[in-house]
Amino acid sequence: MIKALAREAFAIMTTPNQIHRKREDVTIPAADLLAFGPDKPITLAGLKLNMDVGIQYLGAWLSGVGCVPIHHLMEDAATAEISRAQVWQWIRSPKGVLEDGRKMTVELFRELLPEVLQGIQAELGEQYRLGRYEQAAQLFDRLTTSEEFVEFLTLPAYALID
C-alpha cells in the first residue's frame, strides 16, 4: 500500500531525476560559494536550537525512526544536517560570534552540550529513555567539533546501529 501511494505521488515525474531542469537565470560567483558565515551575530537560542534538533534527530534515527516530530515540526536528516553544518561553520568562521560577543568555539559548544541534553530529557520525559540521546550527543559532538567536515551526519551513525 505504501509503495502504491509513493508511486502515485511521483507519477507526475516522467524522468528518474530533475537534472535536466537547469536554473540558467541563477549565477553564483565562486567567491560567494567560498564565503560562508553569518552576517549577523548568532543568538544563543539559535545555537541551542541547532544543537537540540541535531541531537534529537540523531537520537531517534539511531533508534530506527527517520522522520521525527521536534518542537511541533516534522524533521528529517536534512534538517539535522543543516543544524550540524551551521554549528560546524560557526566554530570555524571569524564571523561565528554570539550576540553577547562570545566567539563560537569547540569549548563553548561542549559547555552548552550538557544543558541542551538536559533540556531534551526534560522535554521528552519518559520518551527520552526510548531514544539513544546520550549516544546522539556524543556523535553530534564528534561531527561538529572535528576539523574534517564529514560529508553527511548519518554516514558515521551507521556504525552505531545495532
Give a description of the structure:
- The chain is mostly helical and 162 residues long.
- Helices cover 49% and strands 4% of the residues.
- The chain has helices at residues 2-9, 30-34, 44-62, 77-92, 106-124, 133-145, and strands at 68-70, 73-75.
- Strands 1-2 form a two-stranded antiparallel sheet.
- Strand 1 and strand 2 (73-75) form a beta hairpin.
- Helix 4 crosses helix 6.
- The protein is globular.
**Class by helix and strand content?**
mainly alpha
| Poorly predicted tracts of residues | none
Number of helices: 6
Instruction: Please state the average pLDDT score.
Output: 90
Helix content: 40-55%
> Which strand order do you get reading across the main beta sheet?
1-2
| String of helices and strands | HHHEEHHH
The tally of beta strands, per DSSP, is: 2
Q: Termini, distance in Å?
A: 28 Å
Strand content: under 5%
Quick overview:
The protein is mainly α and 162 residues long. The protein has helices at 2-9, 30-34, 44-62, 77-92, 106-124, 133-145, and strands at 68-70, 73-75.
List the helices and strands and how they pair.
Layout: H1 2-9, H2 30-34, H3 44-62, E1 68-70, E2 73-75, H4 77-92, H5 106-124, H6 133-145
Antiparallel strand pairs: 1-2
Helix pairs in contact: 3-4, 3-5, 3-6, 4-6, 5-6
